[in-house]
Design goal:
Helix content is 50%, strand content 7%. The longest helix is centred in the N-terminal third of the chain and has 25 residues, at 3-27. Helix 1 packs across helix 3. Helix 16 (356-373) links the parallel strand 5 and strand 6 (388-390). The strands form two sheets. Strands 6-5-4-7-8 form a five-stranded parallel β-sheet. The protein has a three-stranded antiparallel β-sheet with strand order 1-2-3. It has helices spanning 3-27, 57-69, 76-99, 129-132, 136-144, 148-163, 192-195, 201-206, 209-229, 238-242, 248-256, 259-266, 287-296, 317-332, 340-347, 356-373, 395-399, 402-408, 413-425, 429-432, 444-456, 464-485, 505-514, 522-527, 553-556, and strands at residues 38-41, 44-47, 53-55, 308-310, 349-353, 388-390, 488-493, 532-540. The protein is of the alpha/beta class.
């Protein structure tokens, strides 16, 4: 793998995307210190101080973006970073898919296989009209005016919309305003699209691992900035300083000796052992010890019942390798190969991360892995959305005065109590992450009440925001709470290594309350999580300091 090419592209793309997106926001009248007025005049959107006019629909898209991102406490630079991340993830995903020939229409979207100036899809628009929901009049008009750049932007946005059906997190149709922030001059030689061709195609062909390396290299600048500043780590900076791509041999070592071991305990003569390069055989024991060990080993495991969690999943490298192990287990039990990807994503794998973009890439990686085995996986009747979740907080619900709104919308007392529990637990979820201690509860009544509310209630002016945004957040937190509170056969992870002294006060307080013996560092706290069933496996990387430093004395005991 050409890591220099990956590094060069990731650093270039980050700088270029952030620069272009900031300029696009400024043209729309959105600045670091002010937001200019916009009005609709006839069929056009007019922005104060901008001599250019925009189509009428831009007004609604701009209004939606301002409402979601620029009316709270979010910093301009933070929003630019998030939008840049999104377009970076989209471009990497599209490049991966076109090289693997995963698009139903079969054409390259970013590049052309024959070296033409125009991306391949532009020369084949008649064949993708229906699939991408393109309008012939729009295409004809832009062609006649020789507006090739504008035509390509139109097609690229439509392609992203089509991809939302199978990769809804990266290509989120609920963020239509992102089309306003596409970089200029997409077809120029120095654009983020043209430069991606400098990454050798074989790096994309060989492994989904390329996605993880690109993600880490993209984050490296922010990571260095945060460490250099020596400022307190916040929810905005935590992902950058803790995301570390796990080398392949380490992933295999951890998985072979946990997920693989579970299988070999149950089926000692399994042929799977031949492929577990880093598997370590059990040490010889005396007869009495061996008897006790045999009593607690896994027996006659059904592959559909194995539950595995990666609580700090990053871009999904560990999950993807575990997917491969599970595939072999299912095959050994006689399952149809093409049916296995959906079964794995439905039954076996769970991932969590505080970083929205990392969780998106982890989902994407698993979807691509599934598609590589089942060429009909994108079909509606075969697709399964991976159970990978970004851990969000409940700050939105607090700001929306959720309790009063729930009462006004006739939620039951039981539902309100469940909501109170979720809001309390997830208040600082973005910085505490998978270390949250969540009790197992039945959220069925709350979920049903949310469904009822959406179907029969008519919110008043004071409940409208909660109805539109708060209900969605409540339902999402209930799903994540279930993942955090259940028990698994295996927890496998490369946790964040970060001293608690650098974190916010809320994290320190939480660590002291729930992880008193390991509170010094996050990696040690993950050693004390209780995700795993009795006699299950914890497979993780840790620092060696816990074995001799005084502050870990009680933990060692």
């Amino acid at each position: 793998m050409n890591k220099k090419a990956l590094l060069d592209y990731a650093l270039f793309a980050r700088k270029e995307l952030e620069t272009q997106i900031a300029l696009s926001l400024n043209k729309l009248g959105i600045y670091k210190d002010k937001i200019l007025k916009a009005n609709v005049v006839g069929d056009y959107t007019i922005i104060e101080g901008n001599p250019d006019s925009y189509p009428k629909r831009v007004y609604g898209l701009r209004k939606m973006m301002v409402s979601e991102y620029f009316e709270g406490e979010e910093k301009f630079e933070t929003v630019v970073e998030e939008f840049a991340y999104t377009w970076f993830n989209r471009l990497v995903a599209i490049r991966f898919m076109e090289i693997h020939d995963y698009f139903p229409h079969g054409f390259h979207v970013l590049t052309s296989r024959d070296g033409s100036y125009e991306p391949e899809i532009l020369s084949n628009l008649p064949y993708v009209l229906s699939e991408l929901n393109l309008e012939e009049d729009v295409i004809r008009s832009l062609r006649d005016q020789n507006k090739i750049e504008e035509l390509y932007r139109y097609v690229l946005v439509k392609q992203c919309s089509a991809l939302s059906k199978i990769i809804p997190d990266i290509f989120d149709v609920r963020e239509p305003y992102l089309e306003l922030l596409l970089p200029n001059n997409l077809l120029s030689q120095d654009s983020v699209i043209r430069k991606i061709e400098l990454i050798p195609e074989e790096d994309f062909m060989n492994d989904i691992e390329v996605v993880g390396w690109l993600y880490q290299f993209y984050n490296s600048v922010k990571k260095d900035e945060v460490f250099a500043s020596k400022e307190t780590i916040t929810k905005d900076t935590l992902p950058a300083v803790t995301q570390l791509f796990t080398p392949d041999w380490i992933v295999r070592y951890m998985a072979d000796n946990s997920v693989g071991r579970l299988w070999l305990e149950s089926y000692p003569n399994s042929s799977l052992k031949q492929s577990l390069k880093y598997y370590v055989d059990d040490a010889k024991q005396d007869e009495e010890t061996q008897k006790k060990l045999d009593e607690i080993k896994y027996k006659n495991v059904n592959p559909e019942e194995i539950k595995i969690i990666e609580p700090c999943c990053g871009s999904g490298h560990i999950l993807v390798y575990v997917f491969d192990l599970l595939l072999d287990m299912y095959l050994e039990q006689g399952y149809n190969k093409r049916d296995i990807p959906a079964l794995i994503l439905k039954n076996n794998l769970y991932g969590l991360d505080v970083d929205k973009r990392a969780a998106q890439l982890a989902k994407f990686s698993l979807i691509m892995k599934a598609r590589s085995i089942d060429n009909r996986f994108f079909n509606e009747d075969r697709f399964v959305n991976p159970r990978v979740f970004e851990i969000k907080d409940s700050q939105l619900l607090i700001a929306l005065n959720y309790k009063d709104s729930m009462k006004s919308l006739h939620f039951s007392e039981e539902s309100i109590k469940l909501a109170e529990y979720l809001v309390d637990k997830f208040e600082y979820g973005k910085v505490i992450g998978s270390l949250l201690k969540v009790a197992p509860k039945d959220y069925g009544p709350l979920v049903e009440d949310i469904k009822r509310c959406k179907e029969v209630e008519s919110p008043g002016i004071f409940e409208q925001d909660f109805y539109d945004k708060g209900l969605k957040r409540l339902r999402y937190l209930a799903r994540v709470a279930r993942v955090l509170s259940r028990k698994y056969d295996v927890m496998i992870t490369n946790p964040p290594y970060i001293g608690i002294s650098t974190m916010e006060k809320t994290v320190k307080k939480y660590a002291e309350s729930f992880y008193p013996d390991s509170k010094t560092d996050m990696y040690a706290m993950f050693m004390e999580t209780d995700f795993v069933k009795k006699n299950g496996f914890v497979s993780m990387i840790n620092m060696h300091g816990w074995m001799f430093i005084d502050s870990f004395l009680d933990m060692r005991k």
